[in-house]
Amino acid sequence: MKVAIVHEWLVTHAGSERVVEQILSLYPEADLFSLVEFLPEDLRYFIRNKSVKTSFIQRLPFANPHFRQYLPLMPLAIEQFDLSNYDLIFSSNHAVAKGVLTRPDQLHLSYVHTPVRYAWDLQQQYLQGANLKRGVKAGVANLTLHYLRLWDLATANRVDHFIANSRYVAQRIRKTYRRQADVIYPPVAIDRFRAPSQREDFYFTLSRFVPYKRVDVIVEAFTRLGLPLVVIGGGAGEKQLRAIAGRNVEILGHQSEEAIVHYMQRCRAFVYAAAEDFGISLVEAQAAGAPVIAYGKGGAVETVIPGKTGILFAEQTVESLMTAVRLFESGKFAFEIADLQQNADRFSTDRFRQAFSEYVAQKWSDFQQDSAGDALE
């Protein structure tokens, strides 16, 4: 069978791209489609140096690096891809990829990292973060997101089967599209981490500095606690974080993968305050032998075992996080490295490839049987 993989944009090698990488490892002959492709040469290895079929957005002015400004055109662009020669289509979706046009005799499986956040449950946070609460630009943004919601809901019917990257995302798919989704956890490259016998006396967080990640809660909590904290990440909120950070908080900005591994393997605990769809960094921390202190909503509920591999705090507030850190400091829980790594093993790339290939084989077999039945009728 001929296979196509559709992804929204290829500009980095983050969580959703790691899913694409593993799907390509299972279907190396697949053709790859993306609205834009601006990968630096040193990252093209994860798409096997394949030629990528891109949309007209690739050729628009200033698309690199401002392709996100063309969001209103993305539904139209994704519908222009010609997938007529393929039997099996995978869409890797966090915005518009599931909206590709397919025929009844083609099987479309959509792996959903999240329903498009800024059009649904996080619209107000995104508009506030972009300073789009009032004025003409705010009106245009609201109208665009209204249109995107209508299109996003309508295109849910173009998918034969949804795959969610967590039970939390499956719930959001059910709420947003009124469709059931099967859960296959995304691949986490746990093999690159090892756990040293001695942890060092600092806490660590890794995140983009955007409003919904709530890094400000972590920085303020540790500033008040006076405990050492290392922060890696970047984004528009960096200036605000530096303004509220105490001397005990070290904000390093963007760092290399080697530096991230270094801090993850040596920190006393990994701290996270966002309600993530899955949360790859939470699993990476456990693979590195670091207990997790995380907000108890979203993917953290599925990847952290309270009292055994971490502590979950109930509210997304400074006070709630401080209470959790004090509980961790009390020594009430003895977090064993073996337990942390065994839990992380549940999300390895090997587990993903096995689960995904078995799932696709079953859905393809069911699809062929249904097609044969329809032909007999």
Which structural traits does this protein have?
single chain; about 375 residues; alpha/beta; Rossmann fold; 2 domains; seven-stranded parallel β-sheet; six-stranded parallel β-sheet; 13 strands; about 40% helix; globular
Helix and strand topology:
Elements lengths: L2 E8 L4 H12 L4 E7 L14 E3 L8 H4 L7 H5 L9 E6 L13 E6 L10 H7 L6 H20 L5 E4 L2 H11 L3 E3 L19 E4 L8 H11 L3 E4 L5 H7 L4 E5 L3 H10 L2 E4 L7 H8 L4 E4 L4 H4 L6 E4 L4 H12 L7 H8 L4 H28 L1
Parallel strand pairs: 1-2, 1-4, 2-3, 4-5, 5-6, 6-7, 8-9, 8-11, 9-10, 11-12, 12-13
Helix pairs in contact: 1-14, 7-12, 10-13
Q: How many helices does DSSP assign?
A: 14
The total beta strand count reads 13
Estimated radius of gyration: 22 Å
Through-space gap between termini: 24 Å
CATH topology of the largest domain: Rossmann fold
Strand order of the largest sheet: 3-2-1-4-5-6-7
Q: How many domain regions?
A: 2
- Helical fraction: 25-40%
What's the CATH first level of the largest domain? Alpha Beta
Write the CATH architecture name of the largest domain. 3-Layer(aba) Sandwich
Summary of the model, kept short:
This protein has 14 helices and 13 strands. By secondary structure, it is of the alpha/beta class. The chain folds into two domains: 3-187 and 349-376, Rossmann fold (3-Layer(aba) Sandwich); 190-347, 3-Layer(aba) Sandwich (Rossmann fold), CATH 3.40.50.
